Amino acid sequence: MSNQAAISVSSSLNEVRYEIRGELAHRAEELERAGCEIIKLNVGNPGHFGLPVPESIRMAVVENLRKADAYCHQKGIFPAREAVVMQFQNRGVTDVTVDQVIMGNGVSELIDMSLRALLETDDEVLLPSPDYPLWSASTVLNGGRAVYYHCRPEQNFLPDPAELAGLITPRTRAVVLINPNNPTGAVYSKELLQAIVGLAERHKLVLFADEIYDQVVFDQAAHQPLAPLVKETLCVTFGGLSKVYRACGYRVGWAVFSGQSGIADQYLHAVELLAALRLCGNVPGQWGVQTALGGLQSIHELTASEGRLGESRAAVMSAAAQSRYLNLVAPMGAMYAFPGVDTEQLPQFDDYQFALDLLNQKHVLVVPGSSFNTGYRNHFRITILPEAHIIAEVFERIDTILEAYVGQ
To answer: What domains can you pick out in the chain, each with its CATH number?
Structure first.
């Protein structure tokens, strides 16, 4: 056996967490290798749950494969960027051009590049708590400091603009909004967004709008795009094919720079430089963008009350309501629910231990709520993508674990 010291790991990873695909997911793989069938509710991956990419999008990619052999422009192919511009025009943003759109290998890559081009050491980014942990990780890895504004369960996971205002310091550079929200399913009203935009404009903060779930809304909820509301500062909107169009594996996302974009020429050039360093985004997948944005929006059939996602959401809400131990703020958008556990009945509840017990004993994989940078440990996230009968079975297993805790 070698006496050589182990290779050390960069200290920049000390504050990085991503339990969505972390130790619990590794444990699930071990159980699968041992022959167990695991119900994986940790990732919002539509194709895994029988929700395929629309055939028209797939055929657009196939028909253009011969055009996809070479690198494209670092910002992406023109038809894809033009389609995004047209979508923004339809949403009331008429001054965006293709030069203000960058295509990337999913939204994840674009988030990293946008923060890398912006942040100096210890610059602050205002992030929601709970957040999608990629935002926190990208902030930290690029030398910044994550400062959280709370979106509390008792406020339906909506932020308080007054609290957010109190967190702004001379080091604050940006505000991140995830709407519809992952992990909570909250959908922000126009009035709430206008209040936050006003803060950002007064302090000249960049607004990052993560709108990857923009058309995944339920009941009477309506998604208000942020870009049309922003006039006096820079807004960067992120979207992609992964969720609305169920094309996670295509790895196609886009970032759109709007608002007072004239103040951001150097910043946009910096993001383009980073885009050029990785040469270009996935070219085959980009050929599906024009068809996706211009064709039938089949997501609306899925989110209707009688649609597949509508029925699954209803099953989650029904199961949580029937449980003696769970409470749930109804998810109004996105592909997740964020149930809470009644700590009066289970005062020693710990979200990670629960997730581990649920996995080991009942073969269901969920994500502990604290993985989303919360200050509490009595929530967990599940995706609502499975069919309703699977969701009902999952909650029976959850209640069995919680019932066992009561007897301890």
So the answer is: 13-42+304-406 (3.90.1150.10), 55-294 (3.40.640.10)
